[in-house]
# Entry
Amino acid sequence: MAEPLSDNKIADELGSLPGWEHANDKISKEFSFDNFRDAVAFINRIAFEAEEQVHHPEIFNVYNTVNISLSTHDAGGKVTGKDITLAKTIESLYN
Ligand SMILES: C[C@H](O)[C@H](O)[C@H]1CNC2=NC(N)=NC(=O)C2=N1
# Structure
């Protein structure tokens, strides 16, 4: 069972996650792309990694932007290590 992280621990982890913010018990980031196709391709890459990790993001797409929000449903919607891990994976997909 994933345990919720303290605000201090989250802040510490976000130190190595550029552009990620912690608010409303989620960590979130907006990613921008040259066009819609690239944005959707990014979403598709995330989908495979999320399935691999059995941990799924909230995804909001408008044209060339993709907003990702992460929290752990099984931990009452709080931020856990699973969210940090997936955020790091998502960062590695963005280039
Ligand atoms: C049964 C399955 O492992 C769980 O429902 C997984 C699926 N994906 C998930 N994703 C997220 N963000 N939080 C969860 O608690 C979660 N639980």
Notes: Residues 36-53 form the longest helix (18 residues).
